[in-house]
Specification:
- This protein is an alpha+beta fold.
- Helices cover 36% and strands 23% of the residues.
- The strands form 4 sheets. A 5-stranded antiparallel beta sheet has the order 2-1-5-4-3, with helices on both faces. The chain has a 5-stranded antiparallel beta sheet with strand order 7-6-10-9-8.
- Helix 9 (214-227) crosses helix 12 (262-270) and helix 14 crosses helix 15 (416-429).
- It is elongated.
């Protein structure tokens, strides 16, 4: 059984006299006072009228008064700050119930001490033993503050590192700050203006400790930026950085720097008593602002909390700046990627559709590419590929190998396998360190096939996921090769093989990069099976709609890789090109019709 604080006190102090008395010794005389005077624990007694009847020497020291000043005086008169405090509550409880009490309580100035108190009721009043635990309590409070600080900063770090989206991060940050640092708050994003002047503000995150007031805060935040005057506390902080404090009567002070309108009315209804605006600084530029509001019950932000808020602001400012730089890099990389992905050709009775979707995580852009062009013979070449890596360097290498491949294909008229061999040799000659997976396919048609609107697809696969063909009847199958060839760029000695398949009118062939089917929570095989299912369910759609639906069904919300797809549909040749396929788009020097023998020189 665990001993109570009162029991522990008895163990330390031993049997104690009833309040207002001294214990008899063996001959019946009262001689305990010397022991009470000598013990280091403070002790005093109160009679039924709450008057001091005895105080030992240790009690005089802790109460900062002599016994002559204390004995005979009423405790509530001599120590008025005890009225209504834990001291009065527990003392009266002990007398009322007849049970001892133990508690810790702080008495303010002039004593400014925290005491560990044990009180025993008796027939004549109350005996009280107490110790000064101020130093211990200050140490405990400091540890609690440090723990609270560490916990808040950890939570701030989690909310800022858990996303690369500034809007999402600031919305989470507001919830972290309330109620730990304030009754309610508004978190503001400073966005880059197109003209380079970083002064476009958006109030993003809001929070209020009172759930019923949250709609008011959200409405206020939606209107505040437009209502700010140049002299507002927000704009002042934006210009000079640091911290701006509105120490009292904040409602009137903020109203005075808001333009007339609903925002001014809402701040009156929200009625903050104090406010603190902190700038979020990036690398030499403001990235955001935090405005903390407190009501009259909470009062101004204490110095410890202000220091913590400034630490939060510093971390948030750098995190937002990193997000800004990341967005810039993403736009640059994605722009480079898209600039290299030109519009596909549109040969007669072949409809080609392409898509590129950047990742939503990490570097955001990689080396995925598609291509669709004509050789001089009139044959259509389709390419899908993925350079190893996920950064701007990968995008640049993608541009290098894509240009190399299409240049060799047009100049030589080579078939897929020969084309890949030539690219391997060229990469080796140029000492290029590009490594990529790819599928090169050529759509061919002989004179015998033309009346049947039938074509042959000839392809070579360099370590890439197999294309999918959707037959005219809706059946889906993978275009798998008998042998898997090495990736491009590994060695020029790698053998390159070709495979062929017959395609009837109405067939669709889909080429894709691995981001469409592979992700961390799913294997490549399961992803390919899911793609087959998706294609079967959308087989009857127009080609553009089919591509959109496949992406919609296959892509997770957070894409870990960029994705490129190119799809070709074979339309019947016994009539004009269908309207949904759009107009023809072919180079002027390429014949409109195919030669009698596509393999002839």
């Amino acid at each position: 059984m665990v001993a109570s604080p009162t029991d522990r006190a008895r163990d330390v102090l031993g049997p104690q006299p009833a309040p207002g008395t001294t214990p008899p010794d063996e001959d019946g005389t009262r001689t305990a006072v010397p022991q009470l005077e000598a013990m280091p624990t403070a002790y005093f007694t109160l009679d039924a009228s709450w008057r001091f009847t005895y105080v030992n020497a240790a009690g005089e020291r802790l109460l900062a008064s002599s016994r002559d000043d204390l004995v005979g005086g009423v405790v509530w008169d001599l120590f008025p700050e005890a009225v209504g405090s834990d001291f009065e509550t527990y003392y009266r409880r002990a007398v009322r119930t007849g049970q001892p009490v133990s508690f810790e309580a702080h008495y303010p100035e002039p004593l400014d001490m925290t005491y560990d108190v044990h009180a025993w009721p008796g027939p004549d009043g109350l005996g009280v033993y107490f110790q000064d635990i101020t130093a211990r309590r200050r140490t405990e409070l400091a540890a609690e503050r440090h723990a609270r600080r560490d916990a808040l900063l950890s939570e701030v770090g989690t909310c800022l590192s858990g996303t690369l989206d500034a809007t999402q991060a600031l919305d989470r940050l507001a919830d972290v700050l309330v109620p730990t640092l304030a009754d309610w708050c508004v978190v503001t994003l400073v966005e880059d203006h197109p003209d380079g002047n970083p002064r476009r503000l958006r109030d993003i995150g809001t929070a209020h400790h009172d759930a019923s007031a949250r709609p008011l805060v959200e409405r206020y935040a939606s209107l505040r930026v437009a209502a700010l005057t140049d002299d507002s506390f927000v704009m002042r902080t934006l210009r000079r950085g640091g911290v701006t404090r509105v120490p009292g009567n904040a409602t009137d002070s903020i109203r005075a720097v808001l333009r007339p309108g609903e925002a001014r009315d809402l701040i009156t209804e929200l009625a903050p008593d104090t406010a603190t605006v902190l700038a979020l600084e990036g690398r030499g530029r403001p990235t955001g602002l935090i405005t903390l509001f407190n009501g009259p019950d909470r009062g101004p932000l204490p110095d410890d909390d202000l220091a913590l808020a400034q630490d939060v602001a510093a971390r948030a400012g750098l995190a937002l700046d990193n997000m800004r730089l990341y967005r810039q890099q993403r736009r640059l990389a994605e722009g480079l990627q898209r600039s290299l992905l030109t519009a596909p050709v549109q040969p007669d009775h072949l409809q080609i559709s392409v898509r590129y979707v950047p990742a939503t995580e990490a570097a955001q852009v990689g080396g995925d590419w598609y291509d669709a062009f004509l050789q001089r013979s009139g044959d259509t070449v389709l390419v899908i590929g993925d350079v190893v890596g996920h950064d701007i360097a990968a995008a640049a290498k993608m541009g290098e190998i894509r240009s190399m491949l299409r240049g060799i294909a047009v100049a030589t008229g080579a078939g897929p396998a020969e084309l890949l061999r030539e690219v391997d040799l060229t990469l080796e000659t140029l000492r290029s360190e590009v490594v990529a997976t790819t599928v090169v396919a050529r759509i061919e048609q002989s004179a015998e096939q033309e009346p049947r609107s039938e074509r042959t697809v000839r392809w070579s696969n360099a370590g890439h996921p197999p294309p999918m063909v959707v037959r005219a009847d809706g059946k889906v199958e993978a275009l798998t090769a008998e042998r898997t060839n090495l990736l491009l760029g590994i060695t020029s000695a790698a053998p390159r093989t070709e495979s062929t398949a017959i395609l009837e009118a109405g067939s669709t062939v889909l080429f894709y990069t691995d981001g469409l089917v592979e992700r961390r929570d799913r294997s490549l095989a399961l992803g390919q099976a899911a793609l087959v299912t998706a294609l079967e369910s959308v087989a009857e759609l127009e080609l553009e709609d089919l591509c959109d639906e496949v992406l919609l069904r296959m892509l997770p919300p957070n894409r870990q890789d960029d994705i490129a797809i190119v799809a070709v549909r074979l339309h019947p040749q016994d009539g004009p090109r269908p309207p949904e396929a759009g107009p023809n788009a072919v180079p002027d020097d390429v014949p409109d019709d195919v030669p009698d023998d596509p393999t002839a020189p």
